[in-house]
Design goal:
binds 2-acetamido-2-deoxy-beta-D-glucopyranose, Methylamine Dehydrogenase, Chain H, 44% strand, five-stranded antiparallel beta sheet, mainly beta, signal, 483 residues
Length: 483
Amino acid sequence: MAARTLSLLASAAALVAATDPSLKLKTFVDVMDLEFSFDPVKAAYWTSLPHHRRTPFAVSPDGQTGYLAYLDSSGTGVHVQHITPATMTVKGPLVTIPDVYEAGGLVAHDHGFALLGNEPIATTVANAPPSSTPVPAIYRYQNGVQQWKTFVAGPGVHPDDGLSMAPDMNGDLVWSDEAELYGAYFVVTDYTGDAEGHFGDSIEYVNDNGTLETITGASSSWGCSHNTGIAFEAADAPPYASICAEDQGAIWLNTETQGMTNNGIKISNENTTNGASGEAMGGMSGSYSALARFVNSTSYIFAWVSRGAVDLTADTWMGDGYTSCSNRTNGRRVAMAMFSDKETKTTAQASSEVGAADGDSQVNWVTSTIGADRSNAHVAVFDDEYALVTWEEIADPQCDIIAFGCSGTFSGSYFQLVNSAGTTIGEPIVSNNTYVAGDMATLSNGTICWPYVNMDWRLDLPVGGGLPDTTTQKMSFACMSLV
Ligand SMILES: *[C@@H]1O[C@H](CO)[C@@H](O)[C@H](O)[C@H]1NC(C)=O
Ligand SMILES: *[C@@H]1O[C@H](CO)[C@@H](O)[C@H](O)[C@H]1NC(C)=O
Ligand SMILES: *[C@@H]1O[C@H](CO)[C@@H](O)[C@H](O)[C@H]1NC(C)=O
Ligand SMILES: *[C@@H]1O[C@H](CO)[C@@H](O)[C@H](O)[C@H]1NC(C)=O
Ligand SMILES: *[C@@H]1O[C@H](CO)[C@@H](O)[C@H](O)[C@H]1NC(C)=O
Ligand SMILES: *[C@@H]1O[C@H](CO)[C@@H](O)[C@H](O)[C@H]1NC(C)=O
């Protein structure tokens, strides 16, 4: 009898071990006092609808130090606060990088950090951009002291292709221990050359001593036209894994091409209007935690929002082999794509067949129901097998302007467990007072943490349209772990 009970228990244990884990959310509400005030809302391009202003966040490989970057509410100067990850409280020191207009990406090292920002160059400097328009740069600090600052656009950077500036900082910064290189992917406007006055994007590499390296087949002075969304993640060697949303109708895995040509991998067809493609990767102040690499693996996961695609037509501007489409839905759904390595999608590419009625049959939807609008999608991995996909919803949206965001009553943040095979596991956790407003960092113990501001998050009115003042001197954090 006793033996039988034991063997029953043993098989029950085996069942549990083979069962997928579930999610546990822990919040640290108003845990950190900020020395300077911060405005957590940023108006979206074109619609002025509210977006979370990104607060880049990263944790050092040794797990000892977190770094939170935030723009001073004056609009000039980025503060980088050192944090104790166990408690999410101030560790000191606070570093202020003056003159920087936006925090656009952060890499944590054991004794310091690197930040992607943008700052104006005096118009007295030869070949500086007009009207003190800011130029992106990488800032490297060690033990609170600046080691170097390297401009990744502006005077002297790829002058033969045209000089670039970044009026808005939309992009991301990554580091590879194997390649010993920072990679930065960011939206630019050119101010000289063929593309003068046009929006595009650039990928640049900088080594650990601050030297800008031009790498054939990896560095890019101009890639995706009117890029409205970037997803970027490190690889063991350049080119790093990169994705762009462009203004012609597609989202490309452009690791190999760095551009929008169809020798890249077409992840998705998206309706584009007025240069926009539905804020697939968050639009203004987005472009972070959209592409993540599984731990100890060559595989990546990408999450975005999409209106789907119907009625593929020939894109005569791009030429043969390129298509445009109409949107299938009014509100957006959340989608995910898996890559077995930085240049290989595990399932079919999006169709480029002119005349096809369906342009989205390849999409792996995370949310299948139609009606709600989803935005602010992000993804981070727990380990080598599981990942967290998150988004926000408006249950009853009003989408006045095609290919942009929607307005309406915020109806919750969603957190969905998925696995590396691209399968959703269980039901999402829903929260009405926890948001993703900065980079999702995976700690070495497999917990995913991110910063947000504890506030009444509203998506019903444009910025300047009657929303209350939201400036704050408190930061909150949330962590998700597997149980
Ligand atoms: C991982 O570490 C963080 C920071 O120290 C802690 O808050 C969290 O509870 C840990 N997670 C697990 C699953 O132990
Ligand atoms: C910085 O790195 C480059 C490329 O590896 C190298 O040529 C240069 O000598 C290095 N400079 C310093 C100061 O170490
Ligand atoms: C986007 O969708 C709208 C609505 O269906 C359509 O009128 C427009 O032509 C589409 N854009 C492109 C570039 O096909
Ligand atoms: C396409 O999107 C626009 C803007 O969200 C919306 O007005 C239109 O109804 C959508 N088309 C379909 C077929 O849902
Ligand atoms: C990744 O590999 C390291 C070194 O082998 C190991 O210590 C760690 O547990 C692995 N992590 C995961 C999530 O597999
Ligand atoms: C969140 O708020 C929405 C709208 O007020 C409500 O419908 C929903 O039930 C709330 N969800 C939770 C989990 O509190």
